[in-house]
Amino acid sequence: MSERNGIMPTADAPPTSGTAYLEMDLLRFTTAGSVDDGKSTLIGRLLYDSKSIFEDQLNAIKQASLNRGDDGVNLALLTDGLRAEREQGITIDVAYRYFATPKRKFIIADTPGHVQYTRNMVTGASTADLAVVLIDARRGVLTQSKRHGFIASLLRIPHIVVAVNKMDLVDYSQEVFASIEREYTAFSAKLDITDITFIPVSALKGDNVVERSEHMDWYHGPTFLHHLEHVNIASSRNLIDFRFPVQTVIRPHQNFRGYAGTIASGVVRPGEEVMVLPSGKRSRIKEITTFDGDQEAAGAGQPVVLTIEDEIDISRGDMLVRPGNLPQVDNEIGAMVCWMGEEPLDRNRHYILQHTTREVKAFVRDVVYRVDVDTLHREEAETLELNEIGRVKLITAQPLFFDPYRANQETGAFILIDPSSNNTVAAGMIRGATRTAEQVAEKAASLSRVAFEAARNAMRSPNVVWEGLNIPREEREAAGGHEAAVIWFTGLSGSGKTTVARALERRLFDAGIKTMILDGDHVRHGLCGDLAFSAADRVENIRRVGEVARLFFEQGSVVLCTFVSPYQEDRDRVRALMPEGRFMEAFVDVDLETARDRDPKGLYAKSDQGKLANLTGVSAPYEAPKEPELTIETANMSVEDAVEVVWQALVAAGIIAS
Question: How much is the pLDDT for 318?
């Protein structure tokens, strides 16, 4: 056999020019099926018959086949690269292969067929434009065949090819093929699959893989390779919704600040207005820079560096979008997940949720149902085991900027990571926010103070006219001999917030300072007695407390607020009600184990017994302050020392005299 540049010759070789090769379309496809359906053999045959195997690769496969005692060249060994795979004759890991024809470039993900490796199939299919589901003609449609079709549907893979393999072992029977086609078509009708193609093949003999079969003259469709070369893949890309997750800030010198990342979807051009999430600030694109220089436009999938006209604080995890085309913003989402962890899903612990370039703490608040992939029926479930698929509700410590996976796969997908092992334990597809439309709007409105004020104005009762206070705060402050302020103590239950605040109030009162303390237990026995502890009720609880604190502040008091208040944006919302410099965020910092040991209200014990849901730090997230005015570590500090820290801060701020 002759060779050209080390590769087997072909009459229609791919372009040799580097530029022409780079400009070719790229199709990513994945193979899946049950054990021994012939996935690896199909890929090996595809590479062999399309003359895409290097001579040294072919020689290595020949030697491996000889060592195994195979009759002839075992093409499956081209993708079964692991030694354990070759010894067992199965695929374990995801094997990636690359090849090209004159029509298109290809990346192949050959995934395992065993049930215990379903998670590997999800990994291989996560970026695919097309999925190939193999079915053994002798065995027909199996549960794994349905499982992989269901996963392909969940992942919104736009094109499905059902390759009915080993037709040579059923005498190339048209009836066998037609029966499998009818059964799988009936099953796929229950799924969200828009394009499905059935092709009868024999991977071992090469029938209908690259060349048309002489044994199946009853089949008039395309060969496997012809379909791969001509399937339309451009229509699956979202070119409308501009989403640019910032990966890193580029600052080579003081005269340049750029934001690097890959455009998740949409198209952008210099001069266009953009909004930065979560700050809500606006600017315009100044330049679009790539390795090839400045560009007049850039679209989905392109790695770029964007510069903007204004100096705005932007960092990794932020997202640039168009002001008139915003993603959803929320920290409560519903999603379908495939569980990949060896340990079952644990709703009493947190995970790290990675979404685009953003990482946040997350809890699985509820398992809505588990899917029986054989019948597609929904089953009640408390957890998810390895390789199981289900619908869940999640709550995150910080809001996500997302689109439903159906509309935008790049901003609708996420993974969950075990923080202790750093292993990926789940892959998820976002269905949408779990809040009502009004709650989502209120959440999104808190992205900026201006937006918050607009939302606050909208919440005011109709036909009510605001009248200023009878005695202005400044007069009250002058009469009292001190200024007014709000000190917001935040921290886990058992951190010591109330203990420190009570001791501080006594010292302030003895010094003639007018005070008022607002404690969580007090307001929930009256003002907020109608609220529970869901995320939405927690938001409303802090909103009410903030308004009450503002009234006492206007009375000239030093207001001490002691609330877990787990969300940073809720605390910022109260800060926005007060003049600059009159709000102090005091982070009462304590580790979870110390708080558990103290457990003054028995909440941790109830949570461990399953009698209390949504306990912050255990089964609900806590977002620690990023830049608090005060940090009080009560595990290493006496109450008196903690009070002194706050006292000195008030003196330094000019609120009280020394």
Answer: 93
**CATH for 243-321?**
2.40.30.10
How far is Cα 613 from Cα 617, in angstroms, rounded to an integer?
11
pLDDT at 528: 84
CA angle 452, 455, 402 (to 5 degrees): 70
> Each residue of 524-565: pLDDT tens digit?
878 888 877 766 677 888 888 999 999 999 999 999 999 988
Which pLDDT value is given to residue 409? 86
145 pLDDT exceeds 60?
yes
Residue 576 has pLDDT above 70, yes or no: yes
The letter for the amino acid at 113 is G
CA distance 411 to 236: 14
Indicate if the pLDDT at residue 271 is higher than 90: yes
How far is residue 337 from each of residues 379, 413, 429, 558, measured CA to CA in Å?
15, 10, 6, 48
Q: What are the sequence ranges of the domains in the chain? A: 18-236, 243-321, 328-442, 471-652
CA 66 to chain CA centroid, Å, is 47
- What span, in angstroms and rounded, lies between the C-alpha atoms of 412 and 410? 6
18-236 domain in CATH 3.40.1170.60? no
Residues whose CB falls within 8 Å of the CB of residue 326, separated by 6 or more in sequence, listed in order = 275, 277, 444
Q: Where does 471-652 sit in CATH, by number?
A: 3.40.50.300
Preceding peptide of 278 cis, ω within 30°: yes
- DSSP labels, 345-389: P-TTS-EEEEETTEEEEEEEEEEEEEE-TTT--EE--SS--TT-E
CATH domain 328-442 topology:
Elongation Factor Tu (Ef-tu); domain 3 (2.40.30)
Residue 145: name the closest of 106, 176, 194, 185 by CA: 185
Sign of CA dihedral 604, 609, 614, 617: positive
Residues 6+ apart with CB under 8 A from 352: 359, 360, 361, 362, 416, 417, 418, 419
For residue 100, what pLDDT is reported? Answer: 87
Do 18-236 and 471-652 come out as alike in CATH topology? yes
